[in-house]
Write a structure and sequence with these properties.
By secondary structure, the chain is mainly α. It contains 5 helices and 2 strands; from the N terminus they run βαααβαα. It starts with 5 loop residues before the first strand and ends in a 10-residue tail after the last helix.
């Protein structure tokens, strides 16, 4: 089992995802999933790790762990991008 990898999904980071990256996440493109998730890995103090340090950590996740992370991550991305009901923003 891989060590505990922590992710922090914030609007500041999510807004830079491309449509192609989000589609690849949903379609299960493993290389892009690893690259995207690496941008959201944080240390024990909540500080984002540089991607070159985060990628090996994401790469050590088991497939079972990855499935849970991707499911939670895509939900968090969607929640982060959808404005609250009373925000006054509309499509």
């Amino acid at each position: 089992m891989a060590e505990n990898v922590k992710f922090n999904v914030t609007y500041t980071r999510v807004k830079d995802l491309t449509v192609d990256e989000f589609i690849a996440l949903q379609e299960g493109n493993m290389r892009i999933i690893k690259n995207v998730l690496s941008r959201f890995v944080v240390d024990e103090n909540g500080q984002y790790l540089p991607e070159d340090q985060a990628k090996p950590l994401v790469g050590k996740l088991t497939l079972e762990q990855l499935q849970g992370v991707v499911s939670t991550f895509t939900g968090n991305v969607t929640d982060t991008l959808v404005p609250p009901v009373n925000s006054g923003l509309s499509g």
